[in-house]
Amino acid sequence: MDVEVAIVGGGMVGASLALSLRGLGVRVLLIEGVAPGSAAQPSFDDRTTALGNASRRIFESLGIWNEIEPQAAAIRTIHVSDAGRFGFARLRASQQGIDAFGYVVANRVLGAALWKKLSAHSGEILLKVPAKADEIEISDSGVRLTVVSDAGREDVQARLVVAADGAHSSVRAAADIEAGVEDYDQVAIVANVATDRPHDGTAYERFTPSGPLAVLPLFDGSYGVIWTVRPDAAAEVLSLDDSSYLRALQDRFGWRVGKFVRVGRRASYPLKLTRAATTVATRTVLIGNAAQALHPVAGQGFNLGLRDAAMLAEMIADAGGADIGAPERLQSFAQWRATDRSGVVRFTDGLVKLFASQQPGVGILRNLGLLMFDLAPPAKSALARVSAGFGGPTPRLARGLAVGGTAAHDEPDLGS
Ligand SMILES: Cc1cc2nc3c(=O)[nH]c(=O)nc-3n(C[C@H](O)[C@H](O)[C@H](O)COP(=O)(O)OP(=O)(O)OC[C@H]3O[C@@H](n4cnc5c(N)ncnc54)[C@H](O)[C@@H]3O)c2cc1C
Q1: Residues lining ligand 1, CB < 6 A?
Q2: Which residue of 131, 276, 408, 414 is 20 to 30 Å from 97, comparing CA positions?
């Protein structure tokens, strides 16, 4: 089979890219190892994702926000605190002149919306699922890979291969791109939890000595809890019976949202920063977690990966029949994404390290910082704009334009 673009990985980011490429007349193949509705799907699992306003805008442009919105909870207030200390900050969307800072959605809902739309356009985007990409060989003239499925093995040739295959990317390895890995020595334990009163759209981030604890509003009135603990405590928290877990969570979080009364299935994620040395190489582009997998503290990983996908779609649309995998085109893509990527990585990593620090004096500085932050409107406005990205050109899809539109790349839009 001959295609122009082979996307390996149809998780949150790869599926979004494939959808962005429909209607361009480009021959695109999407290969995904695990069926989207399967319980074993690693991207569309029990987690919830906080989508920023730019991501909402991209999903609107892709025509799937109407599917997502009924099951999304708007974040109207953000409350940040440091366990056992006096400082806290409260940010209200209304004070920033925006309706919401973002929206919390279950990954399964995102997966269902993305794949429903992709299936409706399967005439335009070739879908291989469940199927694995294997034996990836990259050369100056093109990419060869084998698609392995129950139907057998099929050879594919492509002008460009896109690595959307997650933090342990095999495409990245085939392209000989090194990745640095920094272990945060933390494990996130994720669960949905109900309280004895409905939420008011506030998202809480509480920094504790073992790591951050996020309590995010969900569309059904309950909360998505991301509780970060040290690796040696993770097995214990996972094995607690429901009432012991709820008591332990209440001790850790306090009573701001009322009494925790019910908890669903718990799942754990070891937390690391994985960062590829470069996002492009010969006939290869890395996006999403294959390019950079982040700590979830600031809810930025998918939002950043979606901007990777939207910008890559734009680059492919602009090729206008010329070689999509030409080196100068890939270099331009890497440059477009560099500022946003390094800004988000630095911001997220810095936040984890600042609040993990046990050095004398840092705790007090942190709390003064939070208090000052609470009092300083410009600082709050800056944070409110984090969801739009950290600079560089804003993808057309995030500006409500078609991916193949003619707008220039130099018009920043901070996504209110
Ligand atoms: C606890 C937690 C909470 C988070 N919360 C947020 C949040 O609130 N906001 C936010 O923006 N981000 C959040 N993130 C980050 C977000 O989940 C990731 O950035 C996102 O999942 C990355 O998507 P991806 O498609 O790049 O990679 P993945 O989700 O890893 O998907 C990769 C896909 O590739 C497929 N695949 C792999 N190898 C092959 C192969 N050889 N052939 C075919 N298919 C293959 C896999 O089956 C999978 O479907 C969170 C992360 C964690 C751990």
Answers
A1: 8-14, 31-34, 42-43, 47, 49-50, 132-133, 164-166, 170, 188, 190, 226, 269, 288-289, 296, 299-303, 305
A2: 408
Q: Whose CA is nearest to atom 50 of ligand 1?
A: 296
- CB distance 42 to 381 below 8 Å: no
Distance 11 CA to ligand 1 centre (A): 6
Q: Which of 163, 389, 183, 138 is nearest to 278 (CA)?
A: 163
Give the count of beta carbons closer than 10 Å to the beta carbon of residue 372. Answer: 12
372 Cα: distance to centroid of ligand 1 (angstroms): 35
Burial (CB count within 10 angstroms: exposed 0-12, middle 13-18, buried 19+), residue 360: exposed
- Nearest protein CA to atom 30 of ligand 1, as residue: 166
C-alpha 42 to ligand 1 mean position (Å): 7
Q: Is this model's pTM higher than 0.85 or not? A: yes
Comparing CA positions, the residue from 271, 275, 94 lying closest to residue 178 is 275
Q: What is the spatial distance between Cα 98 and Cα 203, in angstroms, rounded to a whole number? A: 16
pLDDT by 10s per residue, the chain, length 416: 999 999 999 999 999 999 999 999 999 999 999 999 898 999 999 899 999 999 999 999 999 999 999 999 999 998 988 776 666 788 888 988 889 989 999 999 999 999 999 999 988 999 999 999 999 999 999 999 999 999 999 999 999 999 999 999 999 999 999 999 999 999 999 999 999 998 999 999 888 888 889 999 999 999 999 999 999 999 999 999 999 999 999 999 999 999 999 999 999 999 999 999 999 999 999 999 999 999 998 889 999 999 999 999 999 999 988 999 999 999 999 999 999 999 899 988 988 887 776 666 666 666 666 655 566 666 556 665 665 666 778 899 998 899 987 543 344 343 33
The answer to whether the beta carbons of residues 36 and 129 sit under 8 Å apart is yes
What spacing in Å lies between the alpha carbon of 150 and ligand 1's midpoint?
24
What are the residues whose beta carbons fall under 8 Å from the beta carbon of 108, sequence distance 6 or more?
Answer: 44, 45, 46
Candidate from 7, 8, 12 with most ligand 1 atoms within 8 A of CB, to mutate? 12
